[in-house]
Amino acid sequence: MTALPLSALEQHDEFLARHIGHDGYDMAAMLATVGAASLDELIAQTVPAAIRLQKPLPLPGPRREHEALAQLKTIAAKNVLKKSLIGMGYYDTLLPKVILRNVLENPGWYTAYTPYQAEIAQGRLEALLNYQQMVIDLTGMELANASLLDEATAAAEAMTMARRASKSKSNAFFVDAACFPQTLDVVKTRAGWFGYELIVGPAADASKQEVFGALLQTPNANGECVDLTDIVAQLKVSGCITAVATDLMALVLLKSPGAMGADIALGSSQRFGVPMGFGGPHAAFFATKDEHKRAVAGRIIGVSIDARGKRALRMALQTREQHIRREKANSNICTSQVLLANIAGMYAVYHGPQGLKTIAGRIHRLTGILAAGLKAAGVKVLTQRWFDTLQVETTAEVPGYNLRHVSDTVRGISLDEKTTREDVAAILRAITSKPADIDKLDAKAAADDPLAGQLRTDAILSHPVFSAHHTEHEMLRYLKRLQNKDLALDHSMISLGSCTMKLNATSEMIPVTWPEFGDMHPFAPPEQAAGYAEMIGSLSDWLKAVTGFDAICMQPNSGAQGEYAGLVSIRRYQAAQGEAHRNVCLIPKSAHGTNPATAQMCGLQVVVVDCDDSGNVDVADLEAKAEQHAAALSCLMITYPSTHGVFEEAVKEICAIVHRHGGQVYMDGANLNAQV
């Protein structure tokens, strides 16, 4: 028997050793290669003494892998799961298990890096091409990108694209008052920093305004399905670019934005199999006409040929993007939500056109049955032309369900893929206090469809890929074929980038699929989300300890959004200090292209700071430019460690120079792991 003490046998560091994946021999070989005798000596050689912590971070001690999962399960159990019929862009959905197991839970899909190297990314590129084709078909457009971060920021991207594409001299943008409120809030913020005038009103008033662009929504926040054809035609007369926020599931049945004459269609693909997850992440879709392709934000997957003349896929039209055009880019968006886009695309592949029509048809019929039952009981239904959402005059609550509180006397009810006839019967019983004959109401709903005249007549998803993989074994084989065309952690170490999911361990991914987390609506009452509140609160405290800051915001959905939030915070702070005129942003030449792209989105003038051959900031040039622009200096954006992977010796001096000249410092946290 071993003579080791119990403390040595308890293996508290087992997760770390298995996750990072090197043993003592590997460590010794790597240290010898770089000429260091120990890890401490390596740290001493690479991390400047001036910034090294002198004491351990005030964080809780480590837990073994199964202990951490058990603790998280206890936290998750504090979330109260009711059936959320709140809608507002978030709906319960059924993720096919073959996609759950072979995409969402598969490191062959979630650990691969951005497909800059198309040769090792043909599988994901094909999956994204499927996603783009799905979006093109359902929106009636000619071109789609490979996803954006969320519906609200997609709407903001539509606004800035409209400004680029419109020939109108107006500086005003119109927003339908019936858009989702979270969308309106994001568009308001983005418009403010671009200096656009925002006009909010009923969709019918859009053509009465002189605007360069307009954002309309159907189905809208009230549940109304609006045929926007006439409004769009009137807007076109003045050169206005029209964007329509919409719902992919509704478009399975309804006339498309393209058929209405719209220039842009956007929305969330969440309800195509992606759990609500308390608000995200979800892939936004964005589609437009071919003539606007160079004005689009985000990745676009295109079909090309390889060196042997064979069909090959690649990211197309990259000259629009931040990693090339920097402050002149269309947007600061990078990779967006590829994993979630792949799930949504595969959902369409697995169900096919007929399967989607069945799902959408069932949702719509159940909504019609609910409306018929409410009307028969004398309850006023305010929505006239619904797909899945009704606004109802009632103060009733439905036990076990969350409804949207539109006002003190109005409730919103949005049905979804999981809704059953039993759910509809329970809702009717709670609101009307009467039992419902669902079959009798079904006949009435079928005869009185409010969408007559708005249904689409064109074919959808006619590409063979949407008709070939409808059984589990066919889908499994297809996913495996695509996976084998990619390089991910299941094949190799990935020596690119730091801000991806490639280092997520299996136990870190497992809770993502727990219903206690996945099935929580973002607008559920706070008392139902106590587990989320505890988890977010603990993580915030730990991040405050790691970063040394006083507060943490969990809202940004990506590094690009984090940059935007950071610079907006700086600009608002300076405005509060009476220094709103500060509008110069210093950015090192070596910085990632997202930095200058974000700066221009915040109304900042980019001034580039020179770097030496190793990528370090030229301190003398920084000081000269900080002094030159002292009266208008807003901030410096710096990545630390740098994009070259170097801990710059002069980082404290760099920050002091900026502060001395009245500016703030934004530190890019893409390499935050290296700070710990």
**Assembly classification:** single chain
Our measurement of the CA-to-CA distance between the termini, rounded to an integer number of angstroms, reads 38 Å
User: Order of strands across the widest beta sheet?
Assistant: 2-8-7-6-5-3-4
Which structural class matches the secondary elements? Answer: alpha/beta
- Please give the radius of gyration in angstroms: 27 Å
Overall mean pLDDT score? 93
> CATH fold name of the domain at 115-347, please?
Aspartate Aminotransferase, domain 2
Query: What is the fourth-level CATH superfamily of the domain at 115-347?
Result: Type I PLP-dependent aspartate aminotransferase-like (Major domain)
Strand content: 5-15%
Describe the sheet with the most strands: 7 strands, mixed
What does this structure look like?
It is a single chain. The chain is of the alpha/beta class. Among the domains are: 6-46, no CATH class; 115-347, Type I PLP-dependent aspartate aminotransferase-like (Major domain) (Aspartate Aminotransferase, domain 2, 3-Layer(aba) Sandwich), CATH 3.40.640.10; 547-675, Type I PLP-dependent aspartate aminotransferase-like (Major domain) (Aspartate Aminotransferase, domain 2, 3-Layer(aba) Sandwich). It has 24 helices and 17 strands. It has a seven-stranded mixed β-sheet, with helices on both faces. A four-stranded mixed β-sheet has the order 1-12-13-11, with no helix packed on it. A four-stranded parallel β-sheet has the order 15-14-16-17, with helices on both faces. The protein is globular and about 80 Å long. The relative contact order is 0.13.
